[in-house]
Amino acid sequence: MEYEIVIGMEIHVELQTKSKIFCSCPTEFGQDENTHVCPICLGMPGVLPVLNEKVVEYATMAGLALNCEIAHFSKMDRKNYFYPDLPKAYQTSQFDLPICTGGLVEIEVDGVKKDIGITRIHIEEDAGKLLHESADGSLVDVNRCGVPLIEIVTEPDMRSAEEARVFAEKVRNILEYTGVSDCKMQEGSMRFDVNLSIMEKGAKEYGTRTEMKNLNSFRSLVRAVAYESKRQIIELKKGHRIIQETRKWDDTKGVSSSLRSKEEAHDYRYFPEPDLVPIVLDEAYIEAMKKALPELPEAKKTRYIEEYQLPEYDAGVLTASGVTARFFEETVALYNEPKQISNWLMVEVPPLLKELELSMEEIPLKPTQLAELLELVKDGTISGSIGKKVLSDVFKTGQNPKVIVEKEGLAQMSDTGELEGIIEEIVKNQPKSIEDIKAGNEKAYGFLTGQVMKATKGQANPQVANEIIRKVVAKYL
Amino acid sequence: MSLTREDVSYVADLARLEFSDAEVLSLAEDLGAVLDYAETLNKLDTSAVKPTEHVLPVQNVFREDEIKPGLSNEEALSNAPDSEAGCFKVPPVLE
Q1: For the complex shown, is ipTM > 0.85?
Q2: Which pick of A26, A381, A443, B32 has the fewest CB atoms within 10 Å?
Q3: Domain boundaries in chain A?
Q4: B63 and A132 in contact by Cβ < 8 A?
Q5: Contact across the interface for B53 and A50, Cβ inside 8 Å
Q6: What are A337-344's contacts with CB under 8 Å, separation 24+?
């Protein structure tokens, strides 16, 4: 029997506001425990939350960027459950009237395009953190409590780990562009829950699904989907039924294990939050948010192809992250050779980042430096291969290309007198090459050029060297 | 409509409340009577009434996204029954 994997996703994204969703505490990550707290986010009795207007703006922008309908009327609700990371014993969220509904994201896997439906996006608050560092108890840090989140819920439209990964990356890319979140997965700014079930290929009804929570990298997302789909298929082949449950993904061991079954689990008893009033957004507001949206990846890609005459592949790679696109555009503004810049950014930069274990966000190279370097290559001061060496030095020292070229004496040797001396010497010592050339083997010229480059440590201007080689060789013919 | 003992036990469990059998029985009666009384509303024809989404006739109350000082760690923990390493301490929670 052939099986089909059915995947839906819930994505939690922390919004990049300065203050929390219902109080004025900072949202900053990585501070000392319980130092960004106040009576509101600590859940003290009698306090009144007030919604941060930026949260509404960002949620609206995220919804528009993911092609959602923005609700003219939405409201906050209480989701009740007991867990020590939630001091109020309820999470303020949205239940039946979320701020965004019905979006879609187009993905492309193996050349096939496909729409992934977005069911809804709602606003909610993050919970605190539970630390298990004490010998006889658990420790609670409330700093993260009340950090604003949006939760993006998709339709069960994905059919493979690859589709799930591409979708997740695309959502991250789009949100990073909009600036509503820093999307830093290692800091938990973006977390994925995966709902997965298996059905017979072509079946109409989905199988029983399990949910895996808090996958915080694309890699663990792919591995978790691969593991869980295989596990379910094996269970089904044995004739077992799948239990609807929440499973925990252990990234170190590479396995998922049962966390709690849905049956015994949650009845959240949602009800409208009486302390917060409805959010009413008119067309003018939604239009204003649409205008405030920056150019999104798809539009940028199209523009790169048209405006810069870049191949579709280049345009895709450069716009796949907002940081790369910004770097590219800033460099083009200084040095108008889009294809050259694209080549260097796609081919030369990634290995250097990898070597230094840096992300594109942390690139030590500045657009001004790349532009300066490409100018040096273009005007013949240095060759392309020396250019690569200079680039690597800029990465490691932060110095400007011109300074490095001068300090290291890397400028090409175009001084014909000096070059002539070196070439005379080489040709004299390569009688075999002269014989070859006499016999009509033009390749021997290439060999001699190679020798010259070697002798000059790549600093000879190849064109100038070639001319001189032909002049010198002619004397022997 | 009356409330069963199972209904009472279920709701009590969600609320982390513990009752004796006798209490469950009496609560089922009391709560059942309350709910039966509320049932009276269902006699009204509400087909032409818009659903109430929220009880307050107010909308769009927002605050600006600005940071204001909150509590110090000491203040935050001052009423905690137990604390350790700057954190609230609770009975062990196993995932």
Answers
A1: yes
A2: A443
A3: 3-286, 295-408, 416-476
A4: no
A5: no
A6: A337/A374, A337/A378, A338/A304, A338/A308, A338/A309, A338/A310, A339/A308, A339/A309, A339/A310, A339/A314, A340/A374, A340/A378, A341/A370, A341/A374, A342/A308, A342/A310, A342/A314, A342/A317, A342/A318, A344/A370, A344/A374, A344/A391
